[in-house]
Structures are given as C-alpha cells and as structure tokens.
Specification:
The chain is of the alpha+beta class. The protein is built from nine helices and 13 strands.
Length: 268
C-alpha cells in the first residue's frame, strides 16, 4: 500500500457512502504529503482526528530528488511553449503526485474521493459538502473545492447544502489543493493527461482538452494554511521565465486557451 492510512470513521453521510463491517463510511480524503514535510502531516492528521475524518496519506514525489534527464511523462518542450518558462522540479513532483493519488484511489474500487494537498485546512463540513456537490452534479468527473479566484462564474446547480456548482469563464483559477473526483473521472484523467504539458492545477481545469467534466464550487469549501508552497517562491517562478520575445508563442496559446475556457464554461 502507498503511504499510511488513518481511519477515523464517523463524519456526516452523503451520496457516496460505503459499508465497512456493517457501518456506513463517508468519502475518504487522500492527502499528498512529502516525507520531509512531517510538520504538515502532523497538523493535518491532528485536524482529522478532531473532526473524525478518514485520511489516506500518499507519499508525495519530491521533484527535487529527480534529475531533469530522469523525468518520465513530461513533455518539456510542450511545457515551455505553453507556459513560457522552464519546468520547476516541484511542479514536476506535484504533477506526478496527483497522478499517483488517482491511481491509488482507483485500486480501492470506491465511487469517489477527496484529494487534498497537505497545506489545506480541513473544515468540519468538507466531506458532507463535497458529497452534496457530487450528488447535485452527477455527471461531474471532478469538482474543485478550493480556488484562488472564480471570475465569470456560471452556475449549473445548487447542492442540498447550498453550494453553487458551475464553471468559471476566466482562469486559470489557481490551486488544485482540494477537489473531489469520481472513479470515472480518475480513469478519464489517467488516460488523457498522464503526460505533463502544463502545471497540474492548470491541466486539471482543462476539461475541453481532456474530455473530463470539470466543475467548481463558487465558494471555497476549505482554506489553505499560511507558510508558502513547496513548489517555489515568486522569485523562483520569475527566474524560470524566458525573455519576453521567447514568450510570444505562449501569449498566442493563452489567447486560444481563454477562448476554449469560455466556450467550455458556457457549454450546456
């Protein structure tokens, strides 16, 4: 088994319950956590115990420990063209870690799970709101539960717990720190976006390219801890950018992506 598993049971029940030893169990939370980030795991697992949530720890892939010429499943030329900069080691590790979570989740045979990164603050109603959102949009493959922005939001449904679910016409929305994914959604993503051409948070939103049915809640269901990203600081991102004239193809790609995003968000 990958990572460690902590069963806390309990919680509020929703549309994706399963049975274990004759009692109902709610949707589990899969946590990406680097082995060196023990403080983050201790904080998150402590929250889970208090909230009686069940966590499944997935040992994150540390991109800093993998030489650039040893990376697999990464089209670096496409990434540089799409993003106007080099791939950061942390971005590569993040991308491979999310794919690892999806693969591990599929091994369980369960209907859906919640994926979180280890800087997320668990809310008491996270599981119940995620389950209610999935029930409100049964065709969804993924529902993002945390974003930095939801500009031009177009609602398609309201969950039983009051969350508006839909798509944003402007993006990227930022962050893949918390999302619910169904079994069919994980299968679809693993078939279509296994090769890295964008950072994970951007690629996850690109349902127009993957064929996945991606939605988001208008309001964040959870929050993120202060303390910075494991991927890189602003100065690290800035240093990875090409000079402006080398980014001209990227600008054209972004215009095309914007149009595709708008069409995807407005599609009924």
């Amino acid at each position: 088994m990958l990572g460690g598993r902590f069963g806390f049971g309990g919680g509020q029940h929703g549309g994706f319950e399963r049975q274990k030893h004759g009692r109902a169990m709610t949707t589990r939370i899969f946590v990406i956590n680097l082995d060196r980030s023990t403080d983050r795991w201790n904080a998150l697992s402590g929250q889970a115990r208090a909230l009686r949530f069940e966590l499944v720890r997935i040992a994150g892939i540390d991109g800093r420990e993998i030489a650039a010429d040893q990376r697999v499943g990464c089209d670096e030329r496409a990434f540089e063209r799409n993003n106007g900069r080099f791939v950061l080691p942390g971005e590569y590790g993040c991308y491979r870690s999310h794919l690892k979570v999806l693969s591990t989740f599929l091994e369980t045979g369960e209907a859906a799970c919640i994926v979180v990164e280890d800087d997320i603050i668990l809310s008491a109603d996270l599981v119940s709101r995620a389950e209610a959102a999935l029930a409100a949009v049964p065709e969804a493959d993924v529902i993002k539960l945390f974003n930095h922005r939801t500009v031009g939001f177009r609602p398609v449904a309201v969950s039983a717990l009051g969350d508006e679910i839909g798509r944003a016409t402007h993006g990227p929305q930022g962050s893949a720190g918390c999302y619910a994914v169904t079994r069919a959604g994980a299968q679809r993503l693993l078939k279509t976006i296994v090769v890295m051409r964008f950072p994970w948070d951007i690629e996850l939103e690109r349902g127009w390219a993957s064929g996945a049915r991606i939605y988001t809640t208008r309001a964040n269901v959870t929050a993120v801890r202060e303390g910075g990203s494991n991927i890189g600081t602003r100065s690290v991102y800035k240093a990875s950018k090409f000079v402006w004239w080398k980014r001209l193809p990227t600008y054209a790609i972004r215009i095309a992506e914007t149009m595709r995003r708008i069409n995807y968000a407005l599609k009924k």
